[in-house]
UniProtKB/TrEMBL annotation:
<dbReference type="Pfam" id="PF08501">
    <property type="entry name" value="Shikimate_dh_N"/>
</dbReference>
<dbReference type="InterPro" id="IPR007698">
    <property type="entry name" value="AlaDH/PNT_NAD(H)-bd"/>
</dbReference>
<protein>
    <recommendedName>
        <fullName>Shikimate dehydrogenase (NADP(+))</fullName>
        <ecNumber>1.1.1.25</ecNumber>
    </recommendedName>
</protein>
<comment type="pathway">
    <text>Metabolic intermediate biosynthesis; chorismate biosynthesis; chorismate from D-erythrose 4-phosphate and phosphoenolpyruvate: step 4/7.</text>
</comment>
<feature type="binding site">
    <location>
        <position position="93"/>
    </location>
    <ligand>
        <name>NADP(+)</name>
    </ligand>
</feature>
<feature type="binding site">
    <location>
        <begin position="25"/>
        <end position="27"/>
    </location>
    <ligand>
        <name>shikimate</name>
    </ligand>
</feature>
<feature type="binding site">
    <location>
        <begin position="141"/>
        <end position="145"/>
    </location>
    <ligand>
        <name>NADP(+)</name>
    </ligand>
</feature>
<dbReference type="InterPro" id="IPR022893">
    <property type="entry name" value="Shikimate_DH_fam"/>
</dbReference>
<keyword id="KW-0028">Amino-acid biosynthesis</keyword>
<dbReference type="GO" id="GO:0050661">
    <property type="term" value="F:NADP binding"/>
</dbReference>
<feature type="domain" description="Alanine dehydrogenase/pyridine nucleotide transhydrogenase NAD(H)-binding">
    <location>
        <begin position="128"/>
        <end position="206"/>
    </location>
</feature>
<feature type="binding site">
    <location>
        <position position="235"/>
    </location>
    <ligand>
        <name>shikimate</name>
    </ligand>
</feature>
<dbReference type="GO" id="GO:0004764">
    <property type="term" value="F:shikimate 3-dehydrogenase (NADP+) activity"/>
</dbReference>
<dbReference type="GO" id="GO:0008652">
    <property type="term" value="P:amino acid biosynthetic process"/>
</dbReference>
<keyword id="KW-0560">Oxidoreductase</keyword>
<dbReference type="Pfam" id="PF18317">
    <property type="entry name" value="SDH_C"/>
</dbReference>
<feature type="active site" description="Proton acceptor">
    <location>
        <position position="81"/>
    </location>
</feature>
Amino acid sequence: MSNTPNTPSLPSMVCGLIGSGIQASLTPAMHEQEGEAQGFRYVYKKIDLDPLGLTADDLPELLTAARRMGFSGLNITFPCKQAIVPLLDELSDEARALNAVNTVVIRDGRLIGHNTDCSGFAEGFRRGLPGAKMGRVVQLGAGGAGAAVAHAALGLGARQLTVFDIDPARARELADSLCARFGAGRCIAGNDLATAMAETDGLIHCTPTGMAKLPGLPLPAELIDGRIWVAEIVYFPLETELLRVSRAKGCRTLDGGGMAVFQAVGAFRHFTGLEPDAERMRAHFLSMVANKKD
């Protein structure tokens, strides 16, 4: 862009990502590169709660600051996707149904919440695990991202989804809301992980375990059977311990890259009002991942 004669007159915008432990996030670079490709200056800031000594309780102050500083939008990630909901002026139908927001558009001082995690996971799943058996599915995690992914899983055709969470009440609440939307019995809160894993066709992982700052497995390795598929939403690192163990056992696996790319595609559309080039954003994401390995 610096070699373009008209650079000084290019439109510009500022957006950001609020979350905990996000220094390795590739979302900012995806947004900025797509903005440059479409001919405008796009600055995308990481607002990492950890080094700032902040928590989700500080969201009201962060939102006020974003408005005052002229931000056009914010992406929201762990642990703020549900905490931010009551702080917003308006919610899209999907965000309201999910009770989780990962994209906030700031227009005329108003904060409008959207959710692109659901569509992002669904698109990544269709591309990465075509033909996956969707009879019984186990999901670990019923938080903000988990709610979106659970909706996506049922939308993709899962006959019954069993959700486990460290907070059993949260799993029950999610199951109830999913049954209200998709039909009685389509989702249940699990209480016996070993039995559920023995009967499942696939596993979806939606907890922070496996992230760079929280390494490890989210369930005992012996519960993973090579006959099932395993889908991950963690994408930094892209190769989590869950995926390594599952692949070694013979499972078909899906990393979190697809969801990362396609939720960013949706967020870019909301922030800018422009149609992003999804394949260009995906190629950029994959090139960044490859460079991190070098």
